[in-house]
Amino acid sequence: MAQRHLDPTGPRPGTAAPLADPRPGTVATGPTGDVLAGYLRAQATEFLRALRLHRETGAGANGSEGSAEAARALRRSARRISASLHTFQPLLDADWCEAMRPELAWVSGTLAMEHACTARLERLLAALHRLSGSSAFPAQPAGATGPPPGGRAPGAAPAPAGAAPRGATTAPERGNLTVGAAKAGALLDRQLTLARTRAHSTALQALGSSRFHAVADKVAVLASEVPLTGPAATTDLRPLAVAAEDRLTDAVTALPLVTAGSPYNAAALVHGLSPDTVAHPQDAPWHQVRLLLRLHRYAREAVSGPRGNAVVDLRLLAAGQALNLHRDASEAAAAAAQAARTPRIAPATAYALGVLHADQRHEVEAARFAFQQAWQKETVGAS
Amino acid sequence: MAQRHLDPTGPRPGTAAPLADPRPGTVATGPTGDVLAGYLRAQATEFLRALRLHRETGAGANGSEGSAEAARALRRSARRISASLHTFQPLLDADWCEAMRPELAWVSGTLAMEHACTARLERLLAALHRLSGSSAFPAQPAGATGPPPGGRAPGAAPAPAGAAPRGATTAPERGNLTVGAAKAGALLDRQLTLARTRAHSTALQALGSSRFHAVADKVAVLASEVPLTGPAATTDLRPLAVAAEDRLTDAVTALPLVTAGSPYNAAALVHGLSPDTVAHPQDAPWHQVRLLLRLHRYAREAVSGPRGNAVVDLRLLAAGQALNLHRDASEAAAAAAQAARTPRIAPATAYALGVLHADQRHEVEAARFAFQQAWQKETVGAS
């Protein structure tokens, strides 16, 4: 979880300020603070729209599909506002920025938890399904560890209980590991469903809190009035956007890209059985690049609008998707390792969780490879 | 184990016979039966030399290094004689070939077991070492599960017993998996050392048996007198060698090379938790290609001598090494899965074996990728 809250380090916004220093006599030829203000107003409006939608769609025990969509839209705009405050801070009221950013991070972080638990469970159960090659358990999370009490699932054909996992085999010891996969799936389902339920309650509490109402009030003000500094209206945004890109480029340069670009380098599973399995410090620089890439992408959005340069955008999107996969697989691998620490589990369950952990660590390695491939693509346009 | 004794299928030697049909009036322009006879005599001589060396170096409890080297040389020549009997059978006395081949396969198969157990244990302990990132256990097999009774290993510095595995961690639950890796290593060491000891005894018994003496006698005759058919002296060897190459090419064409050439295809671990984990039927075509590639390589040797074409040989060697790795990783993965079925193991041990199994299955996938890369290389020469 801590990795979701990493604060992008590298040069602080202040160090980039001289690039955008609005010296008297300097005539800005590109987008200025007005463009930034327009972008922030649009994102604030989107935030308020999503918030209204979230309240209208209600918040059932596990959230409706509409409220999940609304929460995604809330996070989406909160991230963009927060990123703009970071990248273009010299153009904005400093105290306001300093007060606003952690609150926006709290909103998007809190709302992200429930979705993350759902996605992680889906990923792990799909992987177990793929690895097990049997129909011992569903590929999609059922939201429960067994059939509903007092009856079978709606529409299910009658079948002898417990027949499926052993259907394909006769010798009991051969079926053992498949049973292990089913048990591992049930354990993960139990643990991650519990975590999701908790995350849902936390998000509901957060949305009803006075802290959130204060954030919403500030965003409502932002939708009409952006606290630009005096010279912001004539300050070119681009040097600040370039500084964000430079921070990304520097961080990418520090990644082990030569290794990542060599298939089957087996780097992601190194130390897979070390005491630090759950933390996996080797993932941190990649998580960091993921955040910096997002900052860069949002800065481009603010400067040039979402249709700035379709070709480069595709490259950035591909690189970003690889890093999202990297994060998801890293956290799924950690969840499998964590589940294996549950006391009194059967050896077959632990074995399946070990296979699952390694499988997800290889997805981590595959995501690094995909990032390297996307990143090295030329930025020149395709037809 | 069964996979080591796969009989190369594909067209039987008989179906290739017409290509080499020694019709009256056909003048052979390439290497003929005489060249084959020379090759077989040389290999038979090598077999006898290795056998003499093996007897001289003795056979201690675990075999000396010299006797291991001698056993390797014995297998090496037995494989080449057997392969030549297969590929060039139409040029040789049919009854003699039919009687000789299974006996040579028995010799090389029996002698291979001990080495295979040693190599498998080394591979698995090295992988555990890499995955564990701790010095909880040695990377090289110690040949025993602990210090020798009544004393520490020669030259070892005094150290508190059992201190190493937990040295790097303070919280017991964090150290759990590292202890799991150490226990998994000890379990594999125990099981594979036992298997190696049994294989050693079996090999010793085999070498002392009347069955083996009969084979050695036949090889001794072969060293001076090769049972060629009447027309063999004027029959071109090359069409039979081409037929062996065609059988290889056909089998390679049937492999899923497009998948194998796409990094991180995750194909090797599909069904990694299915009841058929140990068998892994998807590996069989690759094992088959490994045998056919060896037959092709030995056929080239027989026809053109070991220095035939260095460039193509390098390509074949690289492809063959990838397939050897494929076989080794496949069998190591199976051994890890098998060890996980040991009754009453701790969950942490089972977890470590699961990670290890998946790791080796990814080595399988990596070996397929390496084969695809080697195979697609042009056969045109380098400088």
What does this structure look like?
The structure is a homodimer of 383-residue chains. The first copy, chain A, is mainly α and 383 residues long. The first copy, chain A, is built from 11 helices and no strands. In chain A, helix 2 packs across helix 6 (210-222), helix 4 (94-132) runs antiparallel to helix 5 and helix 5 crosses helix 11 (347-376). Chain A starts with 12 loop residues before the first helix and ends in a 7-residue tail after the last helix. Chains A and B meet through helix 4, helix 5 and helix 11 of A and helix 4, helix 5 and helix 11 of B.
Please, how many helices of chain A? 11
Query: How many strands appear in the DSSP assignment of chain A?
Result: 0
Q: Span between N and C termini of chain A?
A: 42 Å
What about the largest sheet of chain A? none
The rounded Rg of chain A comes to: 24 Å
Q: How large is the share of residues in beta strands of chain A? A: under 5%
**Model regions low in confidence, pLDDT < 50 over at least 5 residues of chain A:** 1-25, 135-175
3D shape of chain A? globular
Helix-and-strand structural type of chain A = mainly alpha
Oligomer: homodimer
Largest interface: A-B, 52 and 52 residues
Which helices and strands appear, and what pairs or packs with what?
Two copies of one chain form a homodimer.
Chain A: H1 13-16, H2 33-56, H3 65-87, H4 94-132, H5 172-207, H6 210-222, H7 238-253, H8 257-260, H9 284-304, H10 310-339, H11 347-376
